[in-house]
Amino acid sequence: IIQDPKFNNAFGEIQGDKIKRIPEEFKEAAAHQPLLYHTSFLAMTRLPATEITKPDFVEQIMGLYQLTLPFAKFLS
Questions:
Q1: Span 25-54, mean pLDDT?
Q2: Distance CA 15, CA 40 (A)
Q3: Residue 51 CB partners (closer than 8 Å, separation 6+)
Q4: What is the DSSP string of the chain?
Q5: Measured between alpha carbons, how far is 16 from 10 in angstroms, rounded to an integer?
Q6: Residues 55, 53, 11, CA angle at the centre, nearest 5°?
Q7: Quick one: pLDDT band at residue 47, thresholds 50, 70, 90?
Q8: How far is CA 48 from CA 4, 16, 28, 32, in A?
Q9: At CA 70, angle to CA 44 and CA 27, rounded to 5?
Q10: Which of 1, 11, 17, 32 could join 43 in a cystine, given CB atoms 3.0 to 4.6 angstroms apart?
Q11: What is the model's pLDDT at position 38?
Q12: CA–CA distance from 58 to each of 13, 30, 32, 52 (Å)?
């Protein structure tokens, strides 16, 4: 999901809080999937302040929101 080009272009790398040490039984898996260190998952992007005054701002935000839905569904 997070490697989908549309998601990746919009948000880049998943942000969020991480633990410093991971339980021993997860170390091997965490080497292949660093998201196991995360305790929170944030898909963030930056938009220029001028975007808020554009007529399509709501559609733009809704498009970004739609891109996050598969990831949110996966996490739940």
A1: 93
A2: 8
A3: 57, 60
A4: -TTSHHHHHHH-SPB--B-SS--GGGHHHHHH-GGGGBSS-B------GGGGGSTTHHHHHHHHHHHHHHHHHHH-
A5: 16
A6: 90
A7: very high
A8: 24, 22, 40, 35
A9: 75
A10: 11
A11: 93
A12: 24, 37, 37, 8
Check residue 70 and give its pLDDT: 96
9 C-beta neighbours (distance < 10 Å), count: 10
The residue behind tokens 């305790």 is 39
Q: What is the pLDDT of residue 60?
A: 96
Q: Which amino acid is at 20?
A: K
Q: How far is residue 6's CA from residue 23's CA, in Å, rounded to a whole number?
A: 33
Output the average pLDDT for the chain: 94
Instruction: Quote the CA–CA distance of 48 and 46 in Å, as a whole number.
Output: 7
